[in-house]
Amino acid sequence: MVRSVGVAEVAAIIVVALLSPAVIPSASAAADPYYAGYFFCSPPDTACSNTLVGIRGSIYTINPYVPYFDDLAQWVTVVFSYSTSQWVQVGYVKCGGLNVKCAAYTSDTYYCEYYNGQENVRYFGNPSPGSTYSYNVLYQNNYDWSCTPDSATGTTWSTAFSEAVDLQAFSETTNTCIVIANTHFSGLQLQTIYLPGSWLYWTQHAAHADSPYTINQISDTEFTAAGGTGC
Amino acid sequence: MLKRSAFLATTLVLAVALSAVAFSSPARQSNQPIFGIPYPPWLTSSSSEISVSQLSAAYSAHNLTLRLPSQLPNGFSLTSVHVPDVNSLYGYAMVTYSSTGIKDFRYAEIVFEIRPGAQPSPNDLSTIINNTRGSFQLLTINRIPVLLNPQQGMGDPALQEQFGSSLYAQFWDGGIWYQVRAYHPLTADDILRLISSLQPVGNPT
Predict the structure, then answer these.
(1) What is the average pLDDT score of chain A?
(2) In this structure, are residues A175 and A26 in contact, taking their beta carbons and an 8 Å threshold?
(3) For the residues of B81-99, what is the DSSP string, one character each?
(4) Cα separation of A226 and B157, whole Å?
(5) CB within 8 Å of A193: residues ≥ 6 apart
(6) Quick one: CA torsion of A109, A122, A53, B66, rounded to 10 degrees?
(7) For residue A33, what is the nearest residue in chain B, using CA coordinates?
(8) A72: Cβ–Cβ under 8 A, 6 or more apart, which residues?
(9) Of the spans A16-20, A77-81, B7-11, which averages the highest pLDDT?
(10) Complex ipTM, two decimals?
(11) Distance (Å) of CA A67 to CA A33, A70, A73, A177, B32
């Protein structure tokens, strides 16, 4: 009976399949992240010239549906270079199945990533959905930066940098169908080299949200975000 | 008919799965980040653009002498200077150079990221080289130590796809931290020539 399947039918199936990313949103959207959150360096800028050596923030853990091939991450980051995109980032991620980036982490999982032209990422324990945890990245010495998700051991990255050019706190998705309702960042703080050991609340910010996501700017140190079309 | 239906269904499922993976994953190369960062709007906004003289004056007010290349590759010119806040110029700045008038730092062929920053000690430079496992070469240009990576991976997948790896250098001069990124076909020698031609810029007013 198998021989009764015509070549034309098989060819038609393959053509349909090759076009399928157009009808599989998770596959077609995966290359284009969508962000909602805060930049630190922004007008009116009164503090960006300080030597920035740390970021800390609390993030409420959400647990939305994440389709195959996609992911949600919520994080705080110290940025070393925008022209080459180098940074240390800590937060949590939830990956969809078959996502080659992080397929093993289909439930909320702490992570820390250092990108310096090469990928360096480590995963830790699991935050509980519905709970808020504090995350921080902090310069230590000898160009080492500690990266600490709350209640997990974290890690230290050895880098080429002793200060940051900017700080960020964002929700990131790879598909606009992921619903980020209840996203809540609070207590955004920084450290400068002038007051080592002292966490200072942000006194400025610039908000950014890619459609269809929205951001509610509560203060320089706190925001909520929402949106997503549903998958 | 059952076997025929099963064959068709199996073929369809396999083809869909394979094509979905093919379309979603290969774009990410092994040296690219798992997660990302967005770019702040001021980096590309015309309202965040200032003159190099204004930037130089802001640094002079803090007793720092801003120096930029006085000799550029043929056809290149300085195309833009962007800062986070045009009312507070001292701090981080993005300076672009292009042979085709590009002001957008993502696409300009040469970019200088500038920020106040203390000179690392020789031990610090050794630490950086050790930390980066050989990515950087340490060179000295006019007594300025320069860390040069001729094959810097780009964290932005779109830029990595368009330009491939870049040339990247860090150096510190007179209390200012410089990061330089250049796209091929510019060469490491081109970057070193830029650094060797550093001169105070602008007429601070």
Answers:
(1) 87
(2) yes
(3) EE-S-TT--SS-EEEEEES
(4) 26
(5) A50, A51, A53, A139, A163
(6) -120
(7) B36
(8) A62, A64, A66, A93, A94, A171, A172, A173, A174, A178, A180
(9) A77-81
(10) 0.86
(11) 14, 6, 14, 9, 22
Q: Confidence class of residue B13 from pLDDT cuts 50, 70 and 90?
A: low
Tell me the pLDDT tens digit for each residue of B65-113: 999 999 999 999 999 999 999 988 999 999 999 999 999 999 999 999 9
Residue identified by tokens 């009976």 is A1
Exposure string for A147-160, b = 16+ CB within 10 A, e = fewer? bbbbebebbebbbb
- Per the CB < 8 A criterion, the answer to whether A188 and A203 are in contact is no
**CB distance B85 to A43 below 8 Å:** yes
Q: Judge contact between B134 and B155, C-beta under 8 A.
A: no
Within 10 angstroms of residue B64's Cβ, the number of other Cβ atoms is 16
Q: Are A180 and A129 in contact (CB under 8 A)?
A: no
Contact at 8 Å (CB) between B24 and A26? yes
Mean pLDDT of A158-165: 95
Helix (H) or strand (E) holding B153: none
- Checking if the pLDDT of B15 tops 80, the result is no
Interatomic CA distance for residues A87 and A157, integer angstroms:
11
State the average pLDDT over residues A143-155.
88
Of the candidates B4, B11, B170, the beta carbon closest to that of A13 is on B11
Nearest residue, CB atoms, A43 vs list B39, B84, B166: B84
Fill in the amino acid letter for A32: D
Strands A222-226 and A183-192: antiparallel
CB B4 to CB A30 under 8 A?
no
- Inter-axis angle of helices A7-19 and B2-24, nearest 10: 30
Q: Residue B188: how many CB atoms within 10 A of its CB?
A: 16
Scanning A87-106 for CB atoms below 8 A from B yields: 87, 89, 91, 93, 98, 100-102
Phi/psi for B53 (5° steps) reads: -65, -40
- What's the rounded Cα separation, in Å, for the pair A124 and A92? 9
Verify whether the Cβ–Cβ distance B1 to A73 is below 8 Å.
no
Measure the N-to-C terminal CA separation of chain B; round to a whole number of Å: 87
